Amino acid sequence: MKFTILNVLILFGITQSFITGCLILLSSKRKSLGNRLFALIILSVGLSLVPFFMGNSELVFRSPYLSLLPLDFSLFIFPLVYLFLYKFLKNSEARYKNCTGHFIVPSIFWVYGLFIWVLVSISPENKLGIIEDYFYLKISSIQIFAYLLICLFYTIHIFQLIKELDTIGLKATQKTHVKWFKLIVISLILGFALDFSSVLLGKYFGYWKGSPLDEWLGIPFSILVKLYYGILTYAIAFFGYNKLSQISFSDRRRNDQNFQKYRSRILEAVEEQRLYLDQDLTLSKLAVKTGINSTTISEILNTELKISYSDFINRYRVDEVKRRISINDIENFTLMALAEESGFKSKTTFYRAFQKFTNSSPKDFMKKKDLLNRKDC
């Protein structure tokens, strides 16, 4: 193994990330979802440095089984950071039941890499043939493009979450955590920008020839990028472990007076202005109408009223349909037309919501009304 200062620094970062990540995952005191997400962030950054370390320390040349080992988890980093911040902001375990969608694209590339590595490990003498037959170089180029899109997409959404964090009530200690989150995000974005620049320079000038920037620096730019990531990984793992012990994902300060005021404003807007009649009423549109940010509305509905946004609006729409059936408005409209007039956009949504809030179908409800009317007569 070839040891240099660079290799030692990167090895320290990898080791620190592995130890810290495993300590968090195995600790009985740190089993919250937020802590596990942070551990996965650390492990993903650290593991993504392993292929470079093995190549630079010449371990790959000693063992063909290490060649093309799928340890680059860089595509997972930004989705994990987004979910970590989302957890801190929303504080809802339930919202993570369907979070697997964030990892579909990264997982596809990782599984493909694992497939290639297995083939090369089985037949190392046919490595070049496998790479050519299974379009490894072309897929790698597509992966670089996917990496760019994923990072840009999640960077935008991460900063939107940070902006929301600045608008909600936080304790003084949590405000320091927000600053720490921002520092991590900015550091990772800078690392992504440097890494992507290094890849583009390598593609354009050739990875083995070097670029004018390499000549100006006196050292390959790609090595400086990996050194940056090594130091960053060590810092996030070391300082993050201490910070994480201070973070509570459920202690956001809740100003009850403000919540009551916002709750009243939401109910007033929906009930008195009858906003539910708008078929295209979204959470964002309701936020504009009420002057309350969508995050706060969502939190009030979920924690105070114990109902999701869609159920909250659809319940009013079902009540409107029932009211109009009761006044015999059904004589002037078909059932579906009545539903559309009440705010429903699709027949499926209407029937599902009506069944949910009345425990009967619209037609059964009308039959019961007819029987009651006959008895009254």
Could you describe the 3D structure shown?
The protein has 377 residues and is mainly α. It has helices spanning 5-26, 33-47, 50-56, 59-62, 74-90, 104-122, 127-133, 136-165, 172-205, 212-217, 221-244, 256-272, 283-290, 294-304, 309-326, 335-341, 347-358, 362-376. Helix 12 packs across helix 14. Mean pLDDT is 79; it is low at 92-97 and 248-255.
What structural category characterises the helix and strand content? mainly alpha
Helical percentage: over 70%
In round numbers, the mean pLDDT is 79
**General form:** elongated
Number of helices: 18
How would the blueprint of this fold be written?
Elements: H1 5-26, H2 33-47, H3 50-56, H4 59-62, H5 74-90, H6 104-122, H7 127-133, H8 136-165, H9 172-205, H10 212-217, H11 221-244, H12 256-272, H13 283-290, H14 294-304, H15 309-326, H16 335-341, H17 347-358, H18 362-376
Helix pairs in contact: 1-2, 1-11, 2-5, 2-11, 5-8, 8-9, 9-11, 12-14, 15-17
What labels would you give this structure?
single chain, 377 residues, mainly alpha, elongated
